[in-house]
Amino acid sequence: MKKKFLILPLLILALVACDQEEPAEVSSETETPVVTEVDEAEVTDEEADVPTEAIDLSTHDHAKFTLDYPSDLEIETILDEVNDIVRFSDGETDETIMELRVMEGNRVGFLEPVPTGDTLDFENGKWNVAVNETGYCDGPGCGAPFTAYTYYDEANNQSFVLHFMNQTVETESSKLIAESFSLKPISIYTNDQFSINHTDEYSPVTEDSTTEFSFGRGMEVVIQKTQEFSPIEGANEIGNIELVDGTATTWLYEFDETCEGPSCGPTLFYTLEDPETNTIYAVYFYGESEESDEILQLIQSLRIL
Question: How many Å apart are CA 73 and CA 85, to the nearest integer?
């Protein structure tokens, strides 16, 4: 009987000991991932995923918008009957890194991006995010895949599509750039002879003439028969610019210190001939001596009707 009573306490002690060891093992297992498995390298990688160029940004000032872009990219403006394209490329390889297309009408589906359902706010609107994982296929081959931010400006019936080439997901840098986009208050002046974009600063001032049209900030459009036109005396031809309706000539009249009066300052102007009507369209920017991005975009919007 004594042996039986001695064995029972030993069994009880053994069971108690086992019960005490098991929680210790569970505790050890649950504490390990919490304390040691937080991957700090992954966090660092995510933070480092923001490309270096996204930190060093410059601002492109377009007549219709402003947009930040990586400072080491080169800018090219391409204009045709459908698109007003601002292309940002690698200066060494000429590879397109990103581009912004401005198109008349609702053309946010251009190049067939597939909406993701995501949106991104910018200063005065909201982008819709889309992706084309295979690239746009038109002809024997397909273009590069891209992520797109699309916006339709209903008030002015214009579409804006911002492409980031060779990427199919949003990155911190693409979001940063897309968020920097800001629309300018742009309007289109139209009569039965021509149309031209203008900002608030260049708003129409007078419309009481069929040949001379004044705008704010010293801008003027003059229409003359080719045989009657002559450039400002002393003005020099300094280049050409391709427009939808032909090639315009760029002129510059520099300041004449011997001249007195308000018309003696520098004047930058453009002339475009319409051979069908034997007419010259001259667009003057009084007081300007250099082509700014805004002036270039305004003159590129000129259309003969």
Answer: 15
Query: What is the radius of gyration, based on Cα positions, of the chain?
Result: 33
pTM over 0.85: no
Give me 259's structure tokens.
């001249």
Strand ranges (E), 27-171: 57-61, 65-70, 73-79, 83-90, 96-104, 114-122, 125-132, 146-153, 158-165
Tokens at 186, concatenated: 């742009």
Question: What would the two tokens of residue 234 be?
Answer: 């002393």
pLDDT digits (tens, 9 = 90+) for 103-152: 988 999 888 899 999 999 999 999 999 999 988 877 667 888 999 999 99
- Please give the single-letter amino acid code of residue 195: S
Bridge partners (DSSP) of residue 91 are none
Tell me the two tokens of residue 244.
């939808």
- Residue 35, helix vs strand vs coil: helix
Encoded tokens for 42:
């992954």
Q: Which amino acid, one-letter code, is at 304?
A: I
Question: Please, are residues 263 and 218 in contact by the beta-carbon 8 Å criterion?
Answer: no
- DSSP 3-state assignment of 283? strand
Q: With contact defined as beta carbons under 8 Å apart, do 278 and 225 qualify?
A: yes
Domain boundaries in the chain?
52-184, 188-304
Looking at domain 52-184, does it have CATH number 3.40.1000.10? yes
Select from 3.30.1480, 2.60.40, 2.60.120, 2.20.25 the CATH code of 188-304. Answer: 2.60.120
Q: Which amino acid is at 179?
A: E
Q: Are 65 and 125 in contact (CB under 8 A)?
A: no
